[in-house]
Amino acid sequence: MKEKNRIIFLEVPESLKKKVKNFSIDPAILLPVEIDNTDGIFDPETLSWEMIISGMLRVVSQDGFDINITGGAAPGISPEWLDYYRSLVLSIKPEIYHEFTNAAIVKAQNGEFEMALEINRILEGLFPRSPGVLLNKALILESRARAGEKPGSDNDALHNDNTRDEVLLAYEAALDARPVLSDTLFNAGFFFMSRRDFERAKECFSMYVSMDITEDLPPEKIKEAEKIIKDISGQGMDDPGFREAYDLINRGQDEQGLVKIRDFIERHPKVRNGWFLLGWALRKLGRFKDAMESFRKAVELGGTDIDTQNEIAICLMELGEYGSARKELEIALREDPENIKIISNLGVLALKQGKKTEAEAFFRTVLELDPRDPLASKLL
Questions:
Q1: Cα→Cα distances 86→10, 55, 97, 164, 350, Å
Q2: What is the arithmetic mean of pLDDT over 6-34?
Q3: Residue 1 — pLDDT band, cuts 50, 70, 90?
Q4: Cross-strand pairs, 67
Q5: Who's near 354: CB < 8 A, 6+ residues apart?
Q6: In terms of C-beta density within 10 A (0-12 exposed, 13-18 middle, 19 or more buried), how is residue 269 classed?
Q7: Do residues 56 and 89 lie in contact, with contact meaning Cβ atoms separated by under 8 Å?
Q8: CATH at 354
């Protein structure tokens, strides 16, 4: 592991003080300087504002560092010093919020999630409790989780306990920030939808719609949020019993979840998501024919989607109906040509049929989309 550069604290020389405009340098506050740790030697003649800014950013973001102060003991870094560092950075680089935010977004879009989070962590240090920074953290973590979805498992990455909790905590922090942003409510609503937490989703979308009075939000988003609210209320998906059933099945307590979701379906027999959840539990228990009936009922009540087609295909594969399974997967693939779960299951299906060359092609496609995918590597 590469050793981090050191931070030393120094007084600012007069030559550098003159380069800072509209800011009064306090000589009593030592400034952190980041130096190369390769040789441990620091030449004061090389000191620059870039090194000082780098040091201040490291300190306010609470990044790990070694402290070494020439000729004295390590200072206690008080909240006043941190506020001073933040103000000084902003006076030298007033556009840093927009520059770093854009940089984090670009890194996340390129799949460089750890770098995006590192940049955002610096912004968290510079702008504590900033609603925009907290939302960006949640979005980056959510994107990283979705990129890490693995085929062949019962739960996608957003349903994995550790990843789910990490994204959830980030959204909770963004929702607690004041003022809460309309974009935070809108994105959090869809996040809770993905977790089948329809009660929280409805709450977020309802708050989003209510903000339209003061913020003049995009009409298409308002219309979408209102439709979701209506669907959740009309189908009883904010029923606590649905959430309880989902949590039980998600934790692997399928038999208990089965009892809860059947109880929900008795009260709400025309809710598509209830039948999907019943099918999911039955499929996990290996009751593939019963699961198929539940998924077909879900399709009958609300149409099909990629997740349902994938579940139906898995059941068909287990029942030996390979042709029908392939048809379901190919329909799903046309809807989402880069869906790793679908491509991987096509590979699994090809293996079951003894078509090794075809299976290899599917798994190599998976690895092109995600070189770290463990299942594709193992099956290859």
A1: 17, 11, 12, 32, 58
A2: 85
A3: very low
A4: 7
A5: none
A6: exposed
A7: yes
A8: 1.25.40.10
**Last residue in a domain, options 92, 114, 141:** 92
pLDDT score at 252: 93
- How many CA atoms lie less than 13 Å away from 200 in the CB half-sphere? 17
Backbone phi, psi, residue 119, to 5° = -65, -45
**Last residue within a domain, chosen from 92, 109, 130:** 92
Q: What domain count does the chain have? A: 2
Contacts by residues 270-276 (CB-CB < 8 Å, ≥ 24 positions apart): 270/235, 270/301, 271/235, 271/236, 271/237, 271/301, 272/235, 272/298, 272/301, 272/302, 273/196, 273/198, 273/235, 273/237, 273/242, 273/298, 274/242, 275/301, 276/307, 276/308, 276/311
**Can you give the three-state secondary structure of 111-178, one letter per residue?**
CCHHHHHHHHHHHHHHCCCCHHHHHHHHHHHHHHHHHCCCCCCCCCHHHCHHHHHHHHHHHHHHHHCC
Structural domain for 27, as ranges = 6-92
* Position 124 in a domain: no
Residue type, 175: L
* pLDDT of the residue at 63: 60
Sign of the alpha-carbon torsion through 285, 289, 294, 299: positive
Quote the tokens at residue 42: 């620091």
Among 15, 16, 53, smallest CA distance to 34 is for 53
Q: Could you tell me if residue 135 is inside a domain?
A: no
Band of the pLDDT at 75, cuts 50, 70, 90?
Answer: low
Q: Kindly state the tokens that stand for 201.
A: 């989703």
337 in a domain, yes or no?
yes
Region 166-184: mean pLDDT is 96
pLDDT at 91 over 90: yes
Taking the C-alpha atoms of residue 47 and residue 31, their distance in angstroms, rounded to an integer, is 12
Residue 321 has pLDDT above 70, yes or no: yes
User: Does residue 47 form part of some domain?
Assistant: yes
